[in-house]
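User: Can you predict the 3D structure for this chain?
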Amino acid sequence: MISKFAAALLLLAIAAEAKPCFGRCGGRPPPPCGLPPFLEDLPSDAQEKINEIWKDYKEGDKCYEEQGLTREVMESLPKDVRKSIHKRPPLPFLRGLPKDILAKFDAIFKDKSIPFSQKPEKIDALAQELLTGDNLKKFQEFKEKKEKEDKEYKEKEAKLSPAAKEAYEKLEALGKQKWAIIEDLDEDVKDELFDLWKSRPHGPPRHH
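Assistant: Here is the predicted structure, written as structure tokens:
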């Protein structure tokens, strides 16, 4: 049985196959604060804008504004550019791996026959089997970081007041329902909804 880093790992793994949401997709939490891991894959003008957005950010600060501005930059890019960005693995321990090994991780991410709860364990097992050297070290560092973050999150969750906990549980359930609906849609339908949300007077719906 793997540790509690599983949920965070799985969410990030799925994000490798999805569009950059930065907090707008139903049920999915916003990405970590800081420069996005795919920054170097963006056109130079977009890199400059995003570097400018995050230049004064200090670790530990809230970053809702920076994430919102980053999302706007991403959504201003042509559709083919946005799609090509996330064909590259954003997880640090997958960078530089041969295509055949990447394909094995990708197969787990995409295999809908594998229950959601089992994917993290399979990813962990595959990493221990196939990764070596710097990649394995980065995986262990990533795993330890997510375990620490998960522990801190659970501690904060346990301190919620009864009213806040009730609201939290309802919002979590709603988010999971929305995410399940989005995940079952064809890519063309997702693109239609994405373009529709962009046209809203106040931009795409946000879920924090």
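The first helix runs from residue 6 to 15. Residues 161-197 form one domain.
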